[in-house]
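Priority: medium. Attachment 1 of 2:
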């Protein structure tokens, strides 16, 4: 970690070399040269910005690019001169802005997203020192290099703590840039989309509930393929990842091409049809004229019938001569309450085969493409879904409002996993290059936010793959471009010791579900948490560690009926407290967020958050204590002048309470002896772990030996703070 810190602290890199552009695909433009004649302008969104707060730099250029997300085609950066005179290279990004409305749809609130304009360039910056900055935009493409005029802005002091880091005093835990400690209290909220239990509006409501109850951490997926938010994924209007149809085929006559173009095939008798149903509902404006265009080729049928579903009839278009394409166009006007594209179907007139290509839906007056999911030739890697990117913008704003930090799982695993099977292959190198480009975009668009806790590369990739090189090279690239030094992690589908060890993965992580018919005792959640924490601490003794997914599950990994029966969320409560005191850097991250929400289980965060509000485990060792009752488990931390501990009655497991319906006997007269404390007059606070309140406070003097204290009567669990 010292080596990485040294690299980042310099932040003197005036230009970050884009190494992956040296290996270009066929048809890719050559690297930029000098002598460009572009016109480029830069404007700051404000003249003043607080330290660690967002400043947006708007950049206007006079050129459009085939793939503005590829830095090998266009490399736009902002050169910043800091108040201390250093030079920083800030990455810019291309984005499509959206208007958002919240529309009522029965019992739910749908999010209506409509593009504003046709895309623009921005840079986002969170200044890390006060004073005056000077910003200049620099554009590189195949024609050369161009610079804008410079603009000034001032950074003023703020109350923000900065970005999350590995602790300087104790690398097992996280802290903010200003040195204040951070302990992650939270869960997963992975699938966010209009077809999911949690859409963007629901997510914002959950963020607020979590915040009110003291939670501060969420694991968010941006890699959900087509069922929810995914920055880089195949989202198709023609099929779904769980039901692939065989209607996407090579264009006739192109199957022998090295990279054949594809189209949509309709075949059968009269009336045979295909429907275009994008995974993102297509938003329309009321009382607006739109035009649907495309082209088709026919073999047999006499025509193509198009049905838009907005009361504009079902026009037919005559088939072109054999082996020729015919363009078609249909205009329609939306009604005063039309906010969504209706059913869009294409059917045969007569019997035979039709091939569809180049479908497009735009406002008749022009504007952004609305039917982008119908493009079957859109690459799955290297283009970034702008609607989902906008959703992530909104989520980060909600996180910042609510004091919540996000671990963003970014890379869609199934787009990369096959390419990573042989680390000596060209496919592996291409996967590294593509991942670098994706991470570059993520850093440029979201790296400014202090609410980004960590970049998580993959969700549960195969731990047997040779991924060491991938994490080394992508991690090294991040060290060059991420001036904010966000933490990095990954996850595998069973615990991976090599990933815990990897020097360029900052957080050790594993996932675990308590399931019947497994070797461990799934009836005892505290024992399970202790066992999984021991694995993490064995292989990542000097890193933050997290149990990134956790919960009760069926043998086939589904939601356990037992969890639904646990109305009090006993297993949830016990696992939160056990993980906090067992050696983790945060609580276990429960997976079944929809069930937690239905049970409104968020109140279980509050007692733990209240207890930890003035607590830092940094620099502390494990508790050196004995308890007088064999049925009690004692977990915690201590130094020579303080101790924090949690005592659990082993009769209070979720199985005993929920399934066997046995209430634990009340514990009376128990005592604790703690070794290793220096002499002094100690304040002892006993906390109710379900109410988050102090139930007894006393003073106990220690002259030598062990500190002996008596435990108040309790039934399930109890917590204690001890300090001078």
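Attachment 2 of 2:
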């Amino acid at each position: 970690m010292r080596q990485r810190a040294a690299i980042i602290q310099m932040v003197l890199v005036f230009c970050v070399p884009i190494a992956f552009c040296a290996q270009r695909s066929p048809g890719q433009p050559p690297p930029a040269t000098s002598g460009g004649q572009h016109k480029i302008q830069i404007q700051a969104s404000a003249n003043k910005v607080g330290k660690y707060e967002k400043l947006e730099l708007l950049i206007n250029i006079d050129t459009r690019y085939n793939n503005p997300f590829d830095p090998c085609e266009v490399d736009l950066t902002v050169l910043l001169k800091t108040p201390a005179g250093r030079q920083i290279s800030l990455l810019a990004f291309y984005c499509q802005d959206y208007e958002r409305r919240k529309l009522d749809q029965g019992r739910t609130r749908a999010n209506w997203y409509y593009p504003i304009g046709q895309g623009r360039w921005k840079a986002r910056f969170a200044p890390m020192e006060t004073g005056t900055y000077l910003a200049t935009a620099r554009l590189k493409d195949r024609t050369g290099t161009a610079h804008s005029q410079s603009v000034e802005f001032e950074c003023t002091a703020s109350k923000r703590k900065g970005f999350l880091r590995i602790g300087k005093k104790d690398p097992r835990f996280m802290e903010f840039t200003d040195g204040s400690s951070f302990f992650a209290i939270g869960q997963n909220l992975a699938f966010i989309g209009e077809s999911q239990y949690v859409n963007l509006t629901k997510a914002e409501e959950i963020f607020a509930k979590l915040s009110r109850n003291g939670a501060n951490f969420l694991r968010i997926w941006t890699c959900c393929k087509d069922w929810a938010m995914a920055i880089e994924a195949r989202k198709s209007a023609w099929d779904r990842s769980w039901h692939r149809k065989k209607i996407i085929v090579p264009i006739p006559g192109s199957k022998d091409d090295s990279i054949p173009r594809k189209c949509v095939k309709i075949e059968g008798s009269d009336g045979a049809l295909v429907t275009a149903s994008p995974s993102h509902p297509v938003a329309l404006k009321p009382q607006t004229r739109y035009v649907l265009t495309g082209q088709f080729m026919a073999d047999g049928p006499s025509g193509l019938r198009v049905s838009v579903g907005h009361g504009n009839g079902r026009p037919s278009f005559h088939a072109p001569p054999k082996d020729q394409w015919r363009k078609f166009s249909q205009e329609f006007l939306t009604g005063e309450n039309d906010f969504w594209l209706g059913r869009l179907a294409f059917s045969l007139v007569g019997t035979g085969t039709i091939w569809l290509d180049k479908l497009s839906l735009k406002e008749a007056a022009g504007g952004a493409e609305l039917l982008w999911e119908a493009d079957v030739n859109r690459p799955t890697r290297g283009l970034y879904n702008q609607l989902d990117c906008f959703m992530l913008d909104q989520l980060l704003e909600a996180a910042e409002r609510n004091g919540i930090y996000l671990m963003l799982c970014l890379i869609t695993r199934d787009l990369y996993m096959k390419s990573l099977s042989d680390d000596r292959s060209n496919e592996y190198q291409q996967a590294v290059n593509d991942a670098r480009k994706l991470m570059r975009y993520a850093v440029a668009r979201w790296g400014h936010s202090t609410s980004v806790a960590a970049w998580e590369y993959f969700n549960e990739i195969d731990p047997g793959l040779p991924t060491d090189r991938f994490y080394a090279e992508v991690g090294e690239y991040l060290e060059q471009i991420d001036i904010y030094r966000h933490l990095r992690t990954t996850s595998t589908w069973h615990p991976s010791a090599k990933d815990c060890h990897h020097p360029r993965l900052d957080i050790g992580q594993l996932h675990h579900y308590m399931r019947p018919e497994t070797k461990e005792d799934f009836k005892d959640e505290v024992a399970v948490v202790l066992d999984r924490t021991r694995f993490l601490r064995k292989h990542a003794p000097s890193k933050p560690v997290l149990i990134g997914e956790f919960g009760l599950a069926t043998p086939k990994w589904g939601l356990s009926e037992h969890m639904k029966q646990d109305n009090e969320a006993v297993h949830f409560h016990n696992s939160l407290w056990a993980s906090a005191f067992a050696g983790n850097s945060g609580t276990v991250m429960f997976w079944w967020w929809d069930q937690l929400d239905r049970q409104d289980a968020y109140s279980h965060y509050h007692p733990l958050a209240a207890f930890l509000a003035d607590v830092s485990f940094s620099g502390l060792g494990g508790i050196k204590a004995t308890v007088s009752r064999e049925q009690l488990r004692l977990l915690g931390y201590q130094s020579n002048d303080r101790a924090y501990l949690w005592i659990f009655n082993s009769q209070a497991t979720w199985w005993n309470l929920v399934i066997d319906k046995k209430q634990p006997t009340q514990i009376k007269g128990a005592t604790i002896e703690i070794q290793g404390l220096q002499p002094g007059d100690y304040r002892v606070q006993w906390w109710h772990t379900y109410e988050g309140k102090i139930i007894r406070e006393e003073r106990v003097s220690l002259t030598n030996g062990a500190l002996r204290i008596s435990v108040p009567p309790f039934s399930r669990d109890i917590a204690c703070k001890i300090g001078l």
